Amino acid sequence: MKITAIETLVCHARMRNWIFVKVLTDQPGLWGWGEATLEWHTKGVVGAIQDLSQLLIGEDPRRIEYLWQMMYRQHFWHGNGAVRGTAISGIDIALWDIAGKILGVPCHRLWGGRVRDYIRLYCHLGGGRMEDFYDTKPADADRFAELAQQAVEEGFTAFKSMAVPETLPLEGLRPVKYAEACVSAMRDAVGDHIDIMVDCHARPSPRMGLLFAKALEPFGLYFFEEPCWPEVLDDMALIQQSVKTPIASGERLIGLHAFRDMLDKRAVSVIQPDITHCGGLSEARKISSLAEAYRVSMAPHNPQGPVSTAASIEFGFATPSYIICESVHKDVEWRQDVVSEGFEVQKEGRIVLPNNKPGLGIEINEAEVKKHPFQQEIVQRTFYQDGSVGDW
User: Fold this and answer.
1) Measured over all CA atoms, what is the biggest interatomic distance in the chain, rounded to whole angstroms?
2) Of 105, 133, 157, which residue constitutes the final position of a domain?
């Protein structure tokens, strides 16, 4: 059995271009689907996949670890960057899809079988309006409360929001009070039985991140995400040591070694590898072994397309440290038109039941994808009030 071609299909989905990866074989009707979506780097990722395909054409798709090692270690530059890491990830996911199809079993059966009966989903409420955060009682607080209630009405028992505003490296009480008001409104709206997460998107400085973490500690967050840049792990560890709230991070980290460093420093209670960036399912499984050794939870980052979600769910069914799956369900109204999914979502509790279809249990409708061709993403820029460059 040999790989005959590796194709990319780009599908514009409002905020981002989904990059689907199709690995074809010389066996009629046997191919695998992966995803390599990376915002604002679509052309770079597609090019990287084309470069990597030179290593793989003619190889046996069943030798997944061997092929992963080739993609990571050949061409001199190790696959640590976001673009190449994402390209490797997309191909690797597709190879696991093929492996499941060959044996006629879902991917989680390849990794030792199910360790749980269902997976819980959470949704994302989005962020606030910057023009609002200098108000003593921001209108965003009411808006977040409404969105939180809506998420619960849709069956979710957990949700995340970006209730922490963009801030200069050091500011006074206003942004902290804004975040407090928004999170307080959400907690009052849904009660204590719903899990609330807050994502800082690594925008605050370490000192501001600590101030936000302490201010939001009384609200019992399920986790507090990316309170500062992952490049400053010592500061992130200090934040984690300073509050009871579980700190989460890792969506920007590529490869096993980056997560080893994060865990060695006890910087987080939840790691968030993105399966479409970190090195695919092969590397995510290695990272999960580290998480298990450190008794740290996993909640993979997953704001991309439907192949990413299917991969995360299959991974979750076989991974003890996996706690919850990020779910995107309202990015584009035609999301379900481009994919057929094998797993079943129960609205009550928004839980996913196991998939019994082989591989990832999905199929991409290529004709529908072609209706949404590549569009250059809108350049996202953010600046602080004094005109200096901020973190998007």
Assistant:
1) 65
2) 105
Condensed to tens digits (0 to 9), the pLDDT of residues 273-288 reads 999 999 999 999 999 9
Q: Active-site residue 193, yes or no?
A: no
Token output for 23: 């690995």
- Same domain, yes or no, for 241 and 343? yes
Active-site option among 75, 78, 201, 329: 201
**In what side-by-side order are the strands of the sheet with 16-25?**
3-13, 16-25, 31-35
Per annotation, catalytic residue among 108, 301, 329, 372: 301
Report CA-CA distances (Å) from 259 to 50, 111, 148, 267. 28, 21, 32, 10
Residue 200 lies in a domain: yes
Specify whether the CB–CB gap between 360 and 100 falls below 8 A. yes
Q: What is the value of pTM for the model shown? A: 0.96
Domain count, the chain: 2
Instruction: Round to whole Å and give the CA distance between 37 and 276.
Output: 7
Residue at token pair 């965003």: 140
What are the tokens at 366?
């290529």
How far is CA 71 from its chain centroid? 22
Would you put residue 250 in left (φ > 0), alpha (ψ -120 to 50) or beta?
A: left
Give the Cα separation of 58 and 34 in Å (integer). Answer: 19
pLDDT at residue 293 tops 60: yes
Determine, yes or no, domain membership for 68: yes
- Is 201 tagged catalytic? yes
Q: Which of 238, 236, 218 is nearest to 227 (CA)?
A: 236
8 A C-beta contact, residue 228 and residue 206: yes
